[in-house]
Amino acid sequence: MTTYTQVCSAWPTPMPIPTPKEAIAGVKRLIRVAHRHAKEEGIGFGLRTYRYRITTGRRCTRVRNGTWFVNCNEWGLGGWGEIVHSVSHWAQRKYWPRENPHGPRHVFIEKMLTDYAIRNFLDGQLTRPEKIKPPVDVVAVRAARVAKRIKQWEAKRRRADNAIRKLRRQERYYERRVGHTRLPRPSHTGEPSAVEGSSTQLAA
Questions:
Q1: CA distance linking residue 196 with residue 200, whole number of Å
Q2: Which has the closest alpha carbon to 82: 108, 58, 101?
Q3: In the chain, what are the domain boundaries?
Q4: Rounded CA gap, 97 and 92, in Å?
Q5: What is the C-alpha separation between 107 and 7, in angstroms, rounded?
Q6: Dist. CA 21–CA 28, nearest whole Å
Q7: Of 23, 33, 53, 98, which has the fewest CB atoms closer than 10 Å, so is most exposed?
Q8: Are 87 and 113 in contact (CB under 8 A)?
Q9: pTM (2 decimals)?
């Protein structure tokens, strides 16, 4: 039978302390490992999606209202050991809630997660190379943005001109059919049209 002494002695000394990114990535993997083990034992409900945040100080790694709060170094003595311990308690409560919180089931889960973490977390496997963003020419980006907007407005103007031409054709058609007076065209020179001038004279 697995004991807590075996679990604690499996970790190297001193206890490895992950970075915030490594801690969150590791918790995600530990959750999946525990869920996969539960499914193998016939517990078939799905795994929900969680949010993840880093916490510090005395706060332990825990889940609350759908958010995992991960402490990289709980009490200054934690590291991976405390993270694995907290995730193992979460798994035991979630999948086997009627069993003893510190019984054989929990010891087995914590030993399983500890072995997985030692194999997959301690040699930099969770470290991801930082993506270096290429320098951006702000002036060129803004110039391209202006050129794009000019094209969009020119396209709108062409569509408007086509719509006006079609309406003028319809206007001429109905003038012939019904005999309506042709509507005045807008003056582009700023001078009043003939209809506007005649209405001004009448008003005088």
A1: 6
A2: 58
A3: 4-120, 137-182
A4: 6
A5: 8
A6: 11
A7: 98
A8: yes
A9: 0.63
